[in-house]
Amino acid sequence: MGKLNTSSSELDFDRPNIEDYLPSGSIQEPHGKLRLRDLLDISPTLTEAAGAIVDDSFTRCFKSNPPEPWNWNIYLFPLWCLGVVVRYGLLFPLRVIVLTIGWIIFLSCYFPVHFLLKGHDKLRKRLERGLVELICSFFVASWTGVVKYHGPRPCMRPKQVFVANHTSMIDFIVLEQMTAFAVIMQKHPGALFLESLGCIWFNRSESKDREIVAKKLREHVHGADNNPLLIFPEGTCVNNHYTVMFKKGAFELGCTVCPIAIKYNKIFVDAFWNSRKQSFTTHLLQLMTSWAVVCDVWYLEPQNLKPGETPIEFAERVRDIISVRAGLRKVPWDGYLKYSRPSPKHRERKQQSFAESILRRLEEK
Amino acid sequence: MGNTSSMLTQYDIEEVQEHCSNTFSQQEIVSLYQRFCQLDRNGCGFISAEEFMTVPEFAVNPLSQRLFRMLDGLNFKEFVAFLSAFSSRASLQQKVEFIFKVYDTDGNGKVTFNEMLDILRDLTEFSDLHLFLVIEVMQKENTPMSLKIENLHKRIA
């Protein structure tokens, strides 16, 4: 793991108060005259620190919880062995074949459409969209994805953006199967087909990048002909039990936000891609050798910025809606803290509140 | 202790339990070990300051820098001994000794007035003006210029 540097661009000062989320009763508000023992007694702060060392809500978001083994007795074990044979020997080759067929069809149709129909943009875009939806359906079939979609399907309207919680790269594929979204993602090689959908790239490590990307987002959303834009405001993969704070970028574009909630059923396989523990290929192979990937997708009611609401409050409100629908717990941390340290502003705020309480009590003579 | 293995033997657990004077049950030690392995990402047997800073709840705590000094380079046994003061089974004496260690940065067994001011500065980021106000309060209660541990016990209890 590389050296952590303090993130200054990502954490804004007017964030919701972290104290609201920390366990209450950890620091009681003392009253009365200020005495020496109140200054000397650092035990509440120490207890908080020790509590954080022993267990903290941020690391919990990225823990992959392995399922309980069920094959532990003499009747179930042979059954499980049979299952392994079927999964690796029968299902996996079948799925590889299906996927290969899918790629062949996709590639053989995509290139002709892309080059031959250069002049007829509208038709070309429609066909390309259909083809991307097709290859994503092939992908989903290759893991035997059982996806249940609830709610009205997204439609192509300008001035709307879709946001969803993020568990793995397959979120994008599961959603793309139904509607060809344009997506904004971390720059990485091998995703050139998404160019045709109008995808936007960003680079997490560059701070100046943010303004450029914000501008691109705004242009895309206001263009009538562009594919609906899908954003994962968490900015990182979370283990589908919690949601981390949403970045406000998607919520200050001046358009309707349509929340989408995704919840995976861990009954056969855990769809969380723990990028620290496994590469994407290993993850994909794990999915392809399991029985099925089961998930629910809810398309929720579009939301608009309420009068007097800041983008951050709006983001929190939408996060609330998504978390409630998918049964996820909210956590007050920025997902990017995986890659950088918290800004000193949080510590300063704590120090300030303690200082204020001392001064207040000094005055109560 | 077997830094590379991720399993604790019964013998290991008992050794750790003895080291921390039985303030943790065996189940608690197993859980702490899982946590230790989770924090110790590069698996080198101790948690470095960088690895502690990846826990944002710890990093925003005003006393985290002080605790680093005490935590840096601890192996699992010492890690459990460090946390033993926070266990519900720890005696008041153990807790006060811990607080004393946090105050006593130069480790000479005495907490001077300056060390107390340092802690106050860590907790509040007070300017010098505010510190003078605090000195006024402390003088009213006749603070001796340095405290030994028995006195600290009396002051807090």
From TrEMBL, chain A:
All copies of domain Phospholipid/glycerol acyltransferase, residue ranges: 160-265
Pathway entry: Lipid metabolism
UniProt keywords, alphabetically: Acyltransferase, Lipid biosynthesis, Lipid metabolism, Membrane, Phospholipid biosynthesis, Phospholipid metabolism, Transferase, Transmembrane, Transmembrane helix
Recorded GO CC terms: endoplasmic reticulum; membrane
A GO MF term: glycerol-3-phosphate O-acyltransferase activity
Primary location recorded for the protein, binned into one broad class: membrane
Domain of life: Eukaryota
Localization, UniProt: Membrane
InterPro entries: LPCAT1-like, Plipid/glycerol_acylTrfase
Biological process according to GO: phospholipid biosynthetic process; triglyceride biosynthetic process
UniProt keyword annotation of Nucleus present: no
Annotated TM spans: 72-90, 96-117, 129-149
Family: Belongs to the 1-acyl-sn-glycerol-3-phosphate acyltransferase family.
PANTHER family tied to this protein: GLYCEROL-3-PHOSPHATE ACYLTRANSFERASE 4, ISOFORM D-RELATED, PHOSPHOLIPID ACYLTRANSFERASE
Protein name: Glycerol-3-phosphate acyltransferase 9
Species this chain originates from: Sesamum angolense
Automatic annotation (TrEMBL), chain B:
Any Pfam family matching the protein: EF-hand_7
Residues annotated as domain EF-hand: 27-62, 91-126
Superkingdom of source: Eukaryota
SUPFAM superfamilies attached to this UniProt entry: EF-hand
Keywords associated with the record: Calcium
MF annotations from Gene Ontology: calcium ion binding
Keyword Calcium assigned: yes
UniProt keyword Calcium, yes or no: yes
Alphabetized PANTHER family for the sequence: CALCINEURIN B SUBUNIT (PROTEIN PHOSPHATASE 2B REGULATORY SUBUNIT)-LIKE PROTEIN, OS08G0442300 PROTEIN
Protein name (Swiss-Prot/TrEMBL): Calcineurin subunit B
